[in-house]
Every structure is written in structure tokens, then in C-alpha cells.
Amino acid sequence: MTLLDTVVMQGLDSHGVLTADDKTLLLSLELNARRVTAGEVLWQEVADVDLFCVVKEGWAYSYRNLGNGSMQILKIYLPGDIIGMRDFGFSRRLAGVAMINEGVICPFSYQQLFELFARSSSLAAGIIATTVRQQAMLTERLVYLGRYAAHERLAHFLYELYLRLKRINAVEENGFFMPLSQEQIGDALGLSAVHVSRTFSMLRDEGLVERDRQHVVLPDPQALARLVEFNDTYIDESLPPAFQNFLSLNRIA
Amino acid sequence: MTLLDTVVMQGLDSHGVLTADDKTLLLSLELNARRVTAGEVLWQEVADVDLFCVVKEGWAYSYRNLGNGSMQILKIYLPGDIIGMRDFGFSRRLAGVAMINEGVICPFSYQQLFELFARSSSLAAGIIATTVRQQAMLTERLVYLGRYAAHERLAHFLYELYLRLKRINAVEENGFFMPLSQEQIGDALGLSAVHVSRTFSMLRDEGLVERDRQHVVLPDPQALARLVEFNDTYIDESLPPAFQNFLSLNRIA
DNA sequence: CACTTTCAATAACATACGTTATGAGTCGAT
DNA sequence: ATCGACTCATAACGTATGTTATTGAAAGTG
């Protein structure tokens, strides 16, 4: 899973927007691979902003530790995701990031990113689009935290994971590996671990979710999607035609 | 209030990153002013993404209308803010935007934005930084929706508005004009209007917030900030030195 | 000026969720 | 095999917040 394989970049490439140089430049962000252990903290809140990362293997999450002793998990990162763009333009991290399980990440520097922007406005637009898409997921989470009940939050969370994992071929027969504890899920959904457990039981009783330890099966993904009125554009949609056209025009000019 | 007056662009300019051409280019986004009425919908959810806007006067908000009949307000836009970057890279709007009171907006097109990216990587970086900052506010809201009680959410919301309004000189003697109904505040904070009213009463009784219709006074802003442990970096901080340096290097090269 | 509509305060009641506690699996370390 | 540390399920109980309703004040409309 490289950045070239993401929806956004695939969209650009399939429309001939990316030159060979662009591709080399993009992949140069992933030259520096590093193995990381489960639970390893990539950076803490308030650390200096020095680098960004591409996740190659494993799951990570960004989080905030709060004054009242609780934690809010902001986002789950899967292979192919860029970590850290949240802090672009800030001198201190706004959130910590830690690995959930072991994996491989590719750090790259501020400078590499700026060089990329300077050399290719197509890639710049692509990176912005990628960042905006991550934000769209966060916005969706915000909506669920604000206006939906626990069972809808959990159903939405699981279905979103399901779609994202399907994109990277990590779903088999409607089942997937999910290394999150119920406490972590609660921290992501603004619920207590106890209530996450209750809610899982409820979804199980309704035949919507089966779970055994770290393996989750959605027997009928469509039913789950209907329950939460899932709109998948923000995950699956490739870049709009207008976007591609402008970029190829700019390239030629 | 123009884009050149925002924290991000001020930061770039004061470090000599922006050329005269850059400034002209940036201000060209604001050539096309239009007066809008209170309550006017700038665009609906699922509309085509054709343009973005700079708010010159008045308040606006982005929102989602939900299947369960409720609404979630995502963000309040004040003069100087860019509206619509949330949808960059999508063909359909992810959220509707409407004016709260009457005002003036400056629409600009996808094409204008791409031309700006192509002509100036400094401005591209600046626009990204601006977008990321807006997202930081949203992330902060998410944290409050997930892990804080009603009085903390409201206190945080009011204090954030206070800081943002202070930045644009719209605060006098710790008081400001706030054209939001309690229902709208509830839709922003994930609360019922009734509970917003209760919570206002509570904050009033504690001497933290005075309110008369659309006029709000924070008698002791610091006390309010302490209550919510407000971290103002994401609103007040200018761009980090490293950021500026890279950009001026790129410009010379 | 009447008339309606909107907005806000407050009360009474209902409930979803948090908190605390307990016991049963599971896993890794020794 | 034994132990401790996690993780999870479930129950009992408390509470913050939602819902519905009533009233009054303010603002818009003819």
C-alpha cells in the first residue's frame, strides 16, 4: 500500500494528471521505512512538529489526553494513510499519535513536503484533497457524537472501518481483523467501555455484528449501512472531473 | 477584513514570504462581492461543488440535516473565513452553508484556486495552513462533544467565539454581538435548546456569562478559559519559523 | 395598533448513558 | 501449571440530558 495506490492519487493518475516525475516525487515520501512496536507512541501532544508519516502496515490512532482524565481518540489510521497533516502549519502537535498494533511507517520531513508542493501543483492539490478527505471522516464522527445514540455511533464506526478496510483488501467474507479494545472504541465514540460492551451485545442480538476477540464479522453490511444511512462518498469517491481537468490544463500550460 | 489580514497570511507576509504578485493573486479571490440576506442558503448539501467564498461581513454556518430530523451545525464562519474548503476534491457538497445574519460574501471558483496553487506555492501552503486551522477548531469541537459536559461545551464555545471575534476587533469591553438562537447553539453543541437555556442560566448564576438577547458579555474571560482549560494556539498562533524559512527558500530557488 | 411568530425560562417527567462492582475468559510471564 | 494483568459481559444504581408543556417577552407583519 503506497500513496500512489490511494483513491485520490489513483484518480489523478488514471486521468493522466501525474507525470513520471510526479510519481517518483510522491514515492520519495516513502523511502524511509521503520518498524514500530504495538503501543509505540510516534509523538506526544505538544511535541515539536518535525515530520509526517505514511502508514505502511499496522493501525495507528491520534488522540488527546484531557484534563478531566479521559481520552478522546480522534482518528484511526490504516495502511496508506498519511499521519500528521493535522499539524501542518503549527509548531506544536495538536494531538498525540500511537500505534495500536505493530507495523511499519515511513516518516518524511516538512522540507520534503514543501519541495513536493513547489515542484508539483498537481501533487499539492492531491495532498490537500487527501487531507480534506481525512477531515471529512472526522466531520462525520463529529455529527455522530453530536446527534446519534450509542448503537448508531458504533454501527457507523464499524461500517466505516469495513469500507476503508475493503478499499485496501483487508476484508474477507465480510469479516476483518480489528485490534481495538472496547475501551479504545469508547474513547473514539465518546462512550464508556461498559456501554460499548452493552451496545455490542445489542448489535449482536439484532444479528448486525458478530465479534470474537479481534475478529469482527458484519453478516449483512447493507443492513448496517441502512441503520446509519451511511453515505460513502467521502470514502469511495474519486476526484471530480473538473478537478482533474484543471490540473491537466495547468500541467500543459 | 481581507484574506491578507488573517493570522496565517500576516505571518507569511511579515516574514517576507509573499511577493507583490502573491498579494495581488490572493486579493483577486475577493473581487466579486455579493450582499446576502439573513438566513440565505449559500448552498445545500449534495449540491455541486462549483465555488468557495470569503466572508466579508456577517456570520454563516455549515450544517448537516440528519435522517433522524435533527441538525448538526459543524462550524460558525466569521468575517475573514474561507467557506467551502471542506468540499475541495469532492464533486458534491458534504454540508450545507447558510447565513445567520445579513452580510457580504466574495465567491471564487475552483479554477481561481487552482491557478493560485500553480502560480504560488507559498499561497498554496498558506491556504492549506488556513484550512488545517479551521479543521483544528472542528477537532476541538469533536473533543468537547465526545468528552465534556454541557456547561463545559457551552463555555468553550463562547470562549472560542470571544477569541476569534477579538482577533477581528469585534469585542468591546469583553462583550460581543452573537446572532445565534439557543436552538442553533444546541445544534452546534449536540444539546437540546432547553438544555442550552438551563446551561446559560447556570453560567449566569456562576457569574461567568451575561447575556441579553444577542449581546453576550464575559465578565471574566480568564475564569471561563480556566474552566475549559482553553488552549488558544490553534486560533492565535502564527505560522512556525521553519514553515516560513522553507517557503522563502523555495521562492528564491 | 392588533396579531402572529419566534425566542427564552422554567418545571415535571422519562431515559440513555456513566459509574461501580463482580465474575469469567484469555494471554503472557515465570 | 500458576499467577497476575487485561479484557469483556452483565447487573444495580445514579445522573445528566432529552422531551413535552406552559408562560411571558420580544420581534416581526399587516
TrEMBL record, chains A, B:
Q: Which PROSITE patterns would you find in this protein's record?
A: HTH_CRP_2
The record, for InterPro entries, names:
cNMP-bd_dom, cNMP-bd_dom_sf, HTH_CRP, RmlC-like_jellyroll, WH-like_DNA-bd_sf, WH_DNA-bd_sf
Keywords of the record, alphabetical order, are: DNA-binding, Transcription, Transcription regulation
Transmembrane found in the keyword field: no
Query: Where is the HTH crp-type domain positioned along the sequence?
Result: 148-222
Q: Which residues cross the membrane?
A: none
One Pfam family in the UniProt entry? cNMP_binding
Keyword Secreted carried by entry: no
Instruction: Supply the source organism for this entry.
Output: Halomonas chromatireducens
Could you tell me one molecular function GO term of this UniProt entry?
DNA binding
Its name, as the record gives it, is: Nitrogen fixation regulation protein FixK
Alphabetically, which GO biological process terms does the record hold?
regulation of DNA-templated transcription
